[in-house]
Amino acid sequence: MNSANEMNVEFDSVAKNESFARVIVASFITSTNPTLEEVSDIKTAVSEAVTNAIIHGYEKGAGKIWIRTVVEDRSVYIEVRDKGIGIADVKQAMEPLFTTKPEEERSGMGFSFMEAFMDRLEVESAAGEGTVVKMWKEIGAPAPHYE
């Protein structure tokens, strides 16, 4: 019987830390023996969540980002948290192609990518209080069978 293993990391909200975040989470989940595709999916989802915190949460200003990762057996839970400006309308923000920064050529696909690459996604946010992105993935889950 395996017990949960947890990692908590705090880092500055600067663009160069996005790659650090992806690598540290990917390294931490190796005990689940993920496929290269599963690692890539998780790295992409983490990248999108951290980038959103940097670009939108702190509007490229100073702040901290926290990542909590929990591995239990083959289940991975990842939480990316910021204390930035928050999201006024989470439902709208999660719509594909919606962006608050079109002048910066933001695609508005961050949450869509997170949903596509993870098994489950939840976003909690309040204006002025920050955002928490919660993601789950089961490693080794059978691929969907289509007929």
Automatic annotation (TrEMBL):
It holds the Pfam family HATPase_c_2. Residues 37-141 form the Histidine kinase/HSP90-like ATPase domain. The keyword Protein biosynthesis does not apply. SMART domains: HATPase_c (SM00387). It comes from the Bacteria. GO terms for biological process: asexual sporulation; negative regulation of sporulation resulting in formation of a cellular spore; sporulation resulting in formation of a cellular spore. Signal peptide: none annotated. GO terms for molecular function: ATP binding; protein serine/threonine kinase activity; sigma factor antagonist activity. It catalyses: L-threonyl-[protein] + ATP = O-phospho-L-threonyl-[protein] + ADP + H(+); L-seryl-[protein] + ATP = O-phospho-L-seryl-[protein] + ADP + H(+). It is an enzyme of class 2 (transferase). Keywords: ATP-binding, Kinase, Nucleotide-binding, Serine/threonine-protein kinase, Sporulation, Transferase. Its EC number is 2.7.11.1. Belongs to the anti-sigma-factor family. HAMAP family: Anti_sigma_F. NCBIfam families: spIIAB. Binds to sigma F and blocks its ability to form an RNA polymerase holoenzyme (E-sigma F). Phosphorylates SpoIIAA on a serine residue. This phosphorylation may enable SpoIIAA to act as an anti-anti-sigma factor that counteracts SpoIIAB and thus releases sigma F from inhibition. This is Anti-sigma F factor. It comes from Wujia chipingensis. The lineage of its organism: Bacteria, Bacillati, Bacillota, Clostridia, Lachnospirales.
